[in-house]
């Protein structure tokens, strides 16, 4: 038991078993080094695209409700009565 | 310069931020996706990062992570619903059987279920410590709360898990066996 767990009044053996169990679980829960690298590299792929802010502004600027891309008749009989 | 600082922030904090996101969402995949989003935002705000004193950067990064989790909850339905999903996914199955407690695999699964069933704040701090390798001072700095409060909540989380896993009963039974034998 380290100082971090100083407030706990558990039997020493219980404490030890719990720490061991938690440490085993933590290994399984951690992000793999490969995944960490993949996430890191993906950031630069996205950045080299048009840039996060550009895409963000584009998506924020969309108003799907006002869009006439899909004709109204396409929604007839669906669960989107406001569009019909 | 910009890339060097970003690399330093990523290598220094990604494990800790991932642990926080895992604690908030209880899903490895969601936490990994959010980790990517968080660092993408950091990359796009590197001019801000450069101006922030080094000792305050951890709090800044966790503020971004916290906001990203809020967006995630907003986009994936309401937060209560998400919490219920997490609890449902990790619904503990009480064994009531001593032999099953001895099976390491089952105990491992029980621990995962029990962690998933903890109140979000406890779960988050516990995972930041266990998975992120953070101490109570670092967790306190990241979340903007006193380290003593973190220690108190961590100890409560441990107590809840130990009781839920029946570790105290197991120890007591082992002690009795030793005395009788």
From TrEMBL, chain A:
It comes from the Bacteria. This is Uncharacterized protein. It comes from Paenibacillus prosopidis.
Automatic annotation (TrEMBL), chain B:
It comes from the Bacteria. Residues 73-94 are annotated as: Disordered. Residues 73-87 have a biased composition (Basic and acidic residues). Residues 109-158 form the RNA polymerase sigma factor 70 region 4 type domain. GO terms for molecular function: DNA binding; sigma factor activity. GO terms for biological process: DNA-templated transcription initiation. Pfam families: Sigma70_r2 (PF04542), Sigma70_r4_2 (PF08281). Residues 9-76 form the RNA polymerase sigma-70 region domain. SUPFAM superfamilies: Sigma2 domain of RNA polymerase sigma factors, Sigma3 and sigma4 domains of RNA polymerase sigma factors. Keywords: DNA-binding, Sigma factor, Transcription, Transcription regulation. NCBIfam families: sigma70-ECF. Belongs to the sigma-70 factor family. ECF subfamily. PANTHER family: RNA POLYMERASE ECF-TYPE SIGMA FACTO, RNA POLYMERASE SIGMA FACTOR HI_1459-RELATED. This is RNA polymerase sigma-70 factor (ECF subfamily). It comes from Paenibacillus prosopidis.
């Amino acid at each position: 038991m380290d100082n971090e767990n100083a407030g706990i009044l558990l039997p020493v053996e219980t404490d030890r078993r719990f720490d061991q169990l938690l440490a085993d679980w933590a290994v399984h829960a951690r992000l793999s080094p490969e995944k960490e690298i993949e996430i890191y590299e993906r950031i630069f792929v996205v950045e080299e695209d048009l840039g996060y802010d550009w895409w963000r502004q584009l998506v924020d600027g969309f108003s799907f409700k006002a869009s006439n891309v899909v004709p109204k008749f396409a929604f007839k009989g669906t669960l989107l009565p406001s569009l019909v | 310069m910009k890339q060097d600082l970003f690399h330093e922030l990523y290598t220094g904090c990604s494990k800790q931020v991932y642990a926080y996101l895992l604690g908030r969402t209880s899903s490895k995949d969601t936490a990994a996706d959010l980790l990517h989003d968080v660092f993408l935002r950091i990359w796009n705000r590197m001019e801000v990062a450069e101006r922030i004193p080094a000792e305050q950067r951890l709090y800044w990064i966790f503020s971004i992570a916290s906001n990203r989790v809020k967006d995630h909850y907003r986009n994936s339905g309401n937060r209560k619903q998400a919490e219920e999903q997490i609890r449902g996914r990790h619904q503990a199955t009480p064994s009531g059987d001593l032999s099953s407690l001895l099976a390491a695999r089952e105990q491992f699964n029980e621990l995962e279920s029990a962690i998933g069933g903890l109140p979000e704040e406890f779960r988050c701090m516990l995972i930041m410590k266990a998975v992120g390798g953070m101490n109570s001072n670092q967790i306190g700095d990241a979340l903007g709360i006193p380290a003593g409060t973190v220690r108190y909540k961590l100890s409560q989380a441990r107590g809840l898990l130990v009781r839920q896993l029946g570790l105290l009963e197991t120890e007591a039974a082992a002690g009795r066996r030793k005395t009788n034998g």
